[in-house]
Amino acid sequence: MSILTIILLAIGLAMDCFAVSVCKGLASPHGYVPRYIKPLFMALLFGIFHAGMPLIGYFAGSFFVSFFERYAPWIALVLLGFIGGKMIYDALKSEGEDVQVADFSFSGLLSLAFATSMDTLATGVLFIPYPKILWLAVGVIALTCFVFSMTGFVIGHLVGNRLRINVNILGGIILILIGVKIFAEGVFL
Predict the structure, then answer these.
(1) How many alpha carbons lie under 13 Å from residue 130 in its C-beta half-sphere?
(2) What is the DSSP string of 105-118?
(3) Cα distances (Å, whole numbers) of residue 78 to 12, 34, 112, 172, 176
(4) What's the predicted TM-score (pTM) here?
(5) Which of 3-7, 51-55, 94-98 has the highest mean pLDDT?
(6) Which of 2, 23, 148, 165 is disulfide-compatible with 14, CB 3.0–4.6 A?
(7) How far is the C-alpha of 9 from the C-alpha of 57, rounded, in Å?
């Protein structure tokens, strides 16, 4: 497996984190720019989960992955559907308020990190024939996910400050669509 293949794989795996991070950036208030601690923590958590899942897949082998692959699309659909639905509900509930704040609670970020990294579990099996590049691949996947998450947050934040719509509703819809995408790919493809 070449380094180019690993990089392309890492980019593909980081796309869900990018989309979720755009949603978080969209929902961040304008004065939030100087305080990047929470988005950095989010990106770090996403990167850690994207590093850990391929390792679990690699060391657990095909037995665990074949079992988990069966339920991963359902888990991602439920988690992202719930989080997205809650974002939409909260946005509609507080429609008269002008404040939009991204939820950076530890439990919320943990759920998102888990849900967006579920597809990386199966990629660990890809590295069973290539044990010498496992740690390189895990590092590239984690770093790519971290960079895409921070980039997504910044893009979402910049765009969100220029939009005059309730971006929490948009973010909730995007999260639900990501869950549906993961579900459709896992069940139908």
Answers:
(1) 17
(2) -HHHHHHHHHHHHH
(3) 22, 34, 11, 13, 9
(4) 0.72
(5) 51-55
(6) 148
(7) 15
